[in-house]
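Margin note: ligand = heme C.
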Amino acid sequence: MKKVISTLILLCAGILMLTQCSQSGSDKDAALTDSSAVQSENLMSDKAELERGKYLVGICGCDDCHSPKLMTPEGPVIDSSRRLSGHPADMQLPEINHSELAPGKWILAEQDLTAWAGLWGVSFAVNLTPDSATGTGAWTPELFIKILRSGKFMGIDAGRPILPPMPWQNYGQMTDSDLRAIFSFLKSLPPISNKVPDPLPPVEMKKG
Ligand code: HEC
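Resulting structure:
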């Protein structure tokens, strides 16, 4: 009888050890799978965010105003070597016919659509590439979102409003994750050094 009991005890201990072993093994496997799944999920979501940003920048037409163009017989096309770098600092503005800018008349656009004249003066599309001195290199996603939601230049509460024709009122309605995606895409562009001029106030504009 004693022998039967001790054999039973040994058997139970054996089974216990076996199950524990296999359990700790499967825990380890689960832990491994979890962390690598999270890692690849993060990689995937970074890639997906970048793709989303690229898509949104494309369909929102940021290039229309923020990319210098090459003039072709078919009209202006985006100069991909300077994509989204804003109004070229060295570009000579054509003469403005001020009589056209009176209320009820015209808004004028310089031919690559990076400079715009209206009753507000002349506005220049900014450099959206991540150059730290002249572009968005020092910006955070939070600042980018604040700029587009507040309509204030550089997001400064007491600062000047963002001038036409920048459609911040529309873009500011995007979700945080869409705006973050746009910002991630802008950050992925090659940085281009281009110091866009400050806007000209209406008075200076009239002086020519
Ligand atoms: C119709 C022309 C136009 C389009 C389209 C446009 N922008 Fe602009 N954007 C401008 C102009 C002009 C300015 C300069 C306004 C100023 O100086 O106040 C500007 C300014 C900005 C600023 C403000 C920079 C600052 O320093 O506060 C940001 C950010 C910006 N644009 C991002 C974008 C993004 C992103 C898109 C596309 C989703 C876009 N813009 C599409 C014309 C445009």
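Residues 8-28 have pLDDT under 50 and may be disordered.
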